[in-house]
Write a sequence for this structure.
C-alpha cells in the first residue's frame, strides 16, 4: 500500500503520517516497561505495518534496555535493502544493568552520546541512523550547546542523517537552533496531553522543524476497547499502573472523551483510535504521529488515521467534548489553516 507522506521539516526525510512506535517491543523488566512481550509478535506487527505502507519505525536505546533496538535489528536483517523502513532512535537515558528497575539517568554528555550512538548502530545493524534524537533534557549539568554540538559531529561523520530532540521546551530548542538546525521535535501530544500545542508545535512550524508526536492514543487510553477493568489486569511491571491518567478521577474523564469520538469514527468508517490520532495530525506543524502496537491486529486498529483529515466541524465537536468531559489539559483545537471538508 501507499500512504500519504509529509516532509519532516527541512531534513530531507519524507515520512508517512503515522509511524510504528516500538516502546512496548522492549518488553518488561525495566522501570518503564509494558509487561512481557513476545518478540515474534513484535516482528509480525512491524512487518504488517510496513506492508500497509508505513515507512518509519521509532525506537530508543532505553526501550527494554537495548532489547527494542535488537528486535528492530532482527527485522531489518530479514528485509531486502529496498524494503527497509527509516529508523529513528534516541539517546540520553542511561540505565544501570545491575538494577534494571531503577529509573535511567538523563545523561547528554558528549562522551555518553557517542557511546550510545555506537551501541545503537550495532544493535540495529545499520551504518547510519536516519533520525537520532535526544530523549530527555540532560540532568548532569552539561550545557545543551555542548550536547548538540556532539550531535552535529555525528551528522558530519555520517553516522546520523537527521538530528532531533524529544521532550524539549522552546528555550532548549532555541539554544540548539543557534548551534545547528533542529530537524525534528518529538513531544507527547494527544487529546488528553495537549500542552505542546501551546508553544512547542507553533515554534517548530515557524522554523521548519518537523514534529513527530508520541503517545497520540495516550498509551492506550484512547483505543476503542479500553476499559477501567483493563488497568487492574496490567502486568505488575507495566508503568501505566500508577500513571495519573489511568487512575480516578482522570480515568473516568478520559474514557468519556474517548466515547465522545465514536460518532465521528462512525462517519469516517474508522476506529476511535484513528480519530484520536487524526486530531494530532490536524495541527499545523505536526508531521506525523508515532503509534505503538503489540500485534498486527492492533496496527489494523489505527492505520486508518493515515488517511483521515478532520474538518472544522469535527474539530469543533471534539473541542466541545474536551470541555464537557474536562479531560486533560491544554488548547482544545488547532488553528483553522489546512483543514478538509465535512465527512460524508
Amino acid at each position: 500500500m501507499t500512504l500519504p507522506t509529509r516532509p519532516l521539516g527541512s531534513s530531507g526525510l519524507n515520512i508517512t503520517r503515522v509511524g510504528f512506535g516500538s516502546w512496548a517491543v522492549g518488553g518488561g523488566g525495566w522501570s518503564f516497561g509494558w509487561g512481557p512481550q513476545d518478540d515474534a509478535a513484535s516482528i509480525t506487527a512491524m512487518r504488517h505495518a510496513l506492508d500497509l505502507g508505513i515507512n518509519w519505525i521509532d525506537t530508543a536505546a532505553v526501550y527494554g534496555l537495548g532489547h527494542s533496538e535488537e528486535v528492530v535489528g532482527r527485522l531489518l536483517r530479514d528485509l531486502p535493502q529496498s524494503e527497509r523502513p527509516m529508523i529513528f532512535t534516541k539517546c540520553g537515558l542511561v540505565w544501570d544493568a545491575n538494577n534494571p528497575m531503577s529509573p535511567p539517568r538523563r545523561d547528554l554528555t558528549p562522551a555518553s552520546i557517542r557511546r550510545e550512538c555506537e551501541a545503537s548502530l550495532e544493535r540495529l545493524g545499520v551504518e547510519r541512523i536516519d533520525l537520532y534524537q535526544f530523549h530527555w533534557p540532560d540532568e548532569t549539568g552539561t550545557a545543551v550547546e555542548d550536547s548538540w554540538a556532539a550531535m552535529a559531529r555525528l551528522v558530519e561523520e555520517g553516522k546520523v542523517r537527521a538530528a532531533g530532540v524529544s521532550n524539549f521546551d522552546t528555550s532548549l530548542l532555541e539554544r540548539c537552533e543557534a548551534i545547528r538546525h533542529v530537524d525534528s521535535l518529538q513531544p507527547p501530544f494527544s487529546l488528553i496531553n495537549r500542552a505542546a500545542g501551546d508553544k512547542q508545535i507553533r515554534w517548530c512550524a515557524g522554523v521548519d522543524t518537523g514534529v513527530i508526536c508520541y503517545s497520540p492514543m495516550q498509551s492506550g487510553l484512547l483505543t476503542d476497547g479500553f476499559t477501567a477493568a483493563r488497568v487492574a489486569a496490567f502486568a505488575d511491571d507495566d508503568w501505566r499502573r500508577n500513571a495519573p491518567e489511568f487512575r480516578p478521577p482522570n480515568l473516568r474523564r478520559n474514557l468519556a472523551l474517548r466515547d465522545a469520538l465514536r460518532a465521528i469514527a462512525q462517519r469516517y468508517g474508522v476506529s476511535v483510535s484513528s480519530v484520536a490520532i487524526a486530531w494530532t495530525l490536524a495541527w499545523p506543524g505536526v508531521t506525523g504521529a508515532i503509534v505503538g502496537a503489540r500485534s498486527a491486529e492492533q496496527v489494523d486498529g489505527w492505520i486508518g488515521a493515515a488517511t483521515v483529515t478532520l474538518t472544522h466541524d469535527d474539530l469543533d465537536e471534539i473541542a466541545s467534548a474536551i470541555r464537557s468531559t474536562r479531560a486533560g489539559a491544554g488548547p482544545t483545537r488547532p488553528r483553522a489553516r489546512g483543514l478538509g471538508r465535512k465527512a460524508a
About this structure: The chain has a mean pLDDT of 94. The longest helix spans residues 110-124.
